[in-house]
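Re: the 261-residue chain
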Amino acid sequence: MTEPKSDQNTDKPSVATLLQQGLFHHRQGQLDLAMQRYIDVLADDPSNADALYYVAVIACEDGQYDKGVELAQRAIAIGKPQARVHNLMGQAYDRLGQPLEAIKAYDAALALDPNFAAAHGNRASILAETGFPEEALKAYDRALALNANSGADWFNRGTLLHDMNRLQDAVDSYGHALALTPDLPQAHLANATALMSLGRFDDALEGMDRAIKLAPALAVAHHGRAAALKGLGRDDESKAAAVRAAELDKAAAAAPGSKPN
C-alpha cells in the first residue's frame, strides 16, 4: 500500500504569523530577527504593504533614511492608504534635511487621519525649525489636544514659546513636560533657563541642580547654575560653579570625536 505524500508546506507559518513574529522581535529590539521575518513575508507576498512599512521603520532606525523613504513610497504605491506610512516618510525627510518634503508627507498623513497626534507634533517641529512659530504653536496645541501625555510635544512647545519670548507660557509648558518626563535633564535645564530669565533665581537654581543630578557632566547646566547663584548674590559659589563648568567644557573639547567650537 502506497503511503500518501506529505505536504512540505504544511508546517510553514502563514504570512500573518510571520508578520506577528516580526513585530514581536521588533518590540524586543531584536531587529535582525524582525527583519528576517519581514523578508520572509515579502518572499511569500511581495505586495505586503505592512511588511514594507516595518522594513522601512527598521531602515530609519538604522539611519538609512533614503532607504526608508524608498520603502515607504513602495508601501504607499501598493497598499491601501495609511497615515503612519506618510508620517514615517515625513520623519525620514526631516532627517535628510528636506523640510518641504517632510511637511508634504505630514499633510498627507493628516489628510488620511486628522486625529493623528504624532503627525501634528512632527509637523509642528518642522514649522518651528523653518520659521513659522505661530503655525507651529497651533500644530503643537492640536497634537496635545489629541494626546496630552506627550512629554516631547510639551517640551518642544515650551522651547518654541521660549524662543518667542513668552517665558511664563514656556515655563507652564515645561512643567507639563517635567510631570511626564521627570528624568529628562534637558527639560529641567530649559525650564530653569526660562525661570532665570523671569528673575526667579531660586527656582532656576533648583532646576539646574536637578539637571546636574541627572547628568553630572552637562556643562551648560553648570554654567546656568553659576548664573543663578550670581543672580542670588552668592558670588563665591557662583565662581566655583563656573570653574566646574569650564573644566567640563575643556574635557568635552578634548574627548575623541569632539567638534571644535
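The two ends are 85 Å apart (CA to CA).
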